[in-house]
Amino acid sequence: MRLSLKYxxxxxxxxxxxxxxxxxxxxxERPKLVIGIMIDGLQQRHMDLLxxxxxxxxxxxxISQGGSCMNVSYNLVSAGNASDIAxxxxxxxxxxxGITGNQxxxxxxxxxxxxxxxxxxxxxxxxxxxSAHKLLSSTIVDELMxxxxxxxxxxxxxxxxxxxxxxxxxxxxSVAWMDDVNMKWITTGYYKDGLSHWADEMNVNGxxxxxxxxxxxxxxxxxxxxxxxxxxxxxxxFIYDPSSKRNKNSAASILRNTPAANSLVAELGLKIxxxxxxxxxxxxxxxxxxxxxxxxxxxxxxxQSAEKEDMYLRLDKDIQNLLQKIDSKVGLNKTLIFMxxxxxxxxxxxxxxxxxxxxxxxxxxxxxxxxxxxxxxxxGQQKWISGxxxxxxxxxxEKIEEKKLNFRTVQQTVADFMADFEGIQSALPSxxxxxxxxxxxxxxxxxxxxxxxxCVGDVIITLMPGWLEVDNKNNPVGESNAxxxxxxxxxxxxxxxxxxxxxxxxxxxxxxxxxxxxNIPIPNASIGNPIEEITK
Length: 536
Fold this sequence. Notes:
The chain is an alpha/beta fold. It folds into two domains: 40-345 and 482-535, Alkaline Phosphatase, subunit A (3-Layer(aba) Sandwich), CATH 3.40.720.10; 360-469, Gyrase A, domain 2 (2-Layer Sandwich). The chain contains 19 helices and 19 strands. The protein has helices spanning 2-22, 44-50, 59-64, 81-90, 94-97, 140-147, 161-168, 197-204, 207-212, 259-275, 306-329, 349-354, 364-379, 397-402, 407-418, 430-434, 443-449, 509-518, 532-535, and strands at residues 33-40, 67-74, 103-106, 111-114, 123-124, 154-157, 174-179, 184-188, 285-292, 335-341, 360-362, 385-389, 392-395, 424-429, 459-463, 467-469, 485-492, 499-501, 505-506. Strands 1, 2, 5, 6, 7, 8, 9, 10, 17, 18 and 19 form an eleven-stranded mixed sheet that branches. It has a four-stranded antiparallel sheet with strand order 12-13-15-14. It has a two-stranded antiparallel ribbon with strand order 3-4. The longest helix has 24 residues, at 306-329. The radius of gyration is 25 Å and the shape is globular. Mean pLDDT is 92; it is low at 5-23.
């Protein structure tokens, strides 16, 4: 009897020990640290043009010594950084993850709201009440935190709230983004650690404001740049004060469109890396960073100004410093770095028009006013349109039901009317879009991918090639209307071999690739597949 009990005890002990060990990652088999770098406005064409100007230890190190994926596309309609980043981090599309753009039309409130709006939250350092609650699926950050609860750590630092929260997902320890009015880091109480101590320290000791107060002048002699400045200054070439207001009617500054913003992101990222001791044990950690190469008042995404070149060259220095610090702290051989951009048009409508290529800007106000008048003439003097946002037209369902009209007929009437406007390619009832199938690479499938039942309108329009939608403040609603929109994607570190990958992939494949490398589950709405050249 004693032997039997002893046998059971020993067997159980070994079983528990085995389970405990299996829950720990093997230190030699996977990265200790994952660094994600999102660059707003990044284009492969820009990298090619500036290649000889980059330092060997910055962008060049990541690209030439890692895996460069040259044919990665976004299979969704461009609607802002929130949906682009969500696509990468969830390995999914708005149809499943719920993030259709930076904003959406709230039919119940009859107003346009941030996709992050959450009245149940509190802002930290801000009156904004934001969260990831409308992100309906897990992200690669979430899956890491769920795989090693209480062990792995993750942080996100970004210039904007949409970027910070989509990069941080639901489970990051803390995220931070910039208040470009009051010059400080802010966040939401949604995350368990609130505003990180290191972000708060930069606010209190004045380092944020000091960095933002530095004038921006060319890094090198202005005559060495490929292009002339967009806003030329005789003495140095150009000069900007990051604290200058964007325009007369805005309280926000141009900070986010200057190198100071990138340096602030890099500085806080490095503080978190060091002070939180990321990558110091066998449990992988993640640090997500968002930079930008947008310049003040730019009218084109092309590389046609000394300011834009300088943004890249200064960011190259920030990347170089980041890599050096990671190497000394963790080791680049124990780190996985992935870098990607958002959807941006290669040419603006202005640039296309100047070269006699059909293009234009679409503002919905005029066409909706005419649509409203037409519906009144057909169905009577009532308010038939309740709202509009981002190519989605919302009908007044209550009024249509009250007047006992056939809703499908009204939908089709609206679609037929809208299809005749200049710049509009097609107009479709939303039910037709949500239920469509077919070729996953077709334009119609791309439109379906970009809708979600929680915020879809009743009629959806699409624009012709070269056309771009803008709101009443002339801000783009999405920045690319290309049938296929590409982004450069780079993987570097660990066991990744130097290679150029020309196989076609989609941004939804990035999360699956990282999950394979970390040996953790893929996000729960992922439709992607690992990039085999990177994972083998």
